[in-house]
Amino acid sequence: MRIDIVTALPDIVEEPLRHSIVGRAQSKGALAVHVHDVRDYATDKHRQIDDYPFGGGAGMVLKPEPLVRCVEAITAAAGAPDAVIYLTPDGERLQQPRVNHLSTHEHLILLCGHYKGIDQRVRDTVVTLEVSIGDYVLSGGELPALVLVDAVARLQPGVLGDASSALTDSFQDGLLDAPAYTRPASFRGHDVPAVLRSGDHARIDAWRDAQRLEKTRARRPDLLDD
Ligand code: ADE
Description:
Order of helices and strands: EHHEEEHEHEHEHEEHH
Largest sheet: 5 strands, parallel
Oligomer: single chain
Strand order of the largest sheet: 2-1-6-5-7
Bound molecules: adenine
Structural class: alpha/beta
């Protein structure tokens, strides 16, 4: 899978991409992430990428030309993407089924806006999907882009050590995950539930299922409605 991130702040995204699962996905060849500085595609001599909003108001808006030129350069080099995704608080709220579907694509372009966002004409003509990572406002799309990259990277074949572990994640079947314990068996007077040390896998599975249901009912009853 190839992901291109278009941003005015490449430093924010570059370092996190080198570590953990996303880093491993890239060294295994399952994922290639390319980061593009939108300023490199500015058309004027001051390399201006944003401007005042028509109609007035606070905040700057990312200009259309550099963003579109950058997307065109990526498309010329790597072919047309499966989706051009704009990260924005007014997009579709990201949930696991969407992540699963995106993880099957071969090529995504992610556009990061900042402050007042990007010119609407880019959204109308180039963007194919708008994604929000939650009902709160961040100062730019860079952290949301990293969230999306992480969520799809860990689903690429061969990336997680244990192929079944992604399938048992919270949300994969609409339930939250069961509690997890490791050694020591007793920690400051708190013991690991005996069933987990019983070696009886049918009982362990039944216990985990019951825990998942109970936790989901307590914390996220809306998931059970779905
Ligand atoms: N940009 C700013 N806030 C955001 C959010 N919550 N989700 C996606 N992109 C954003």
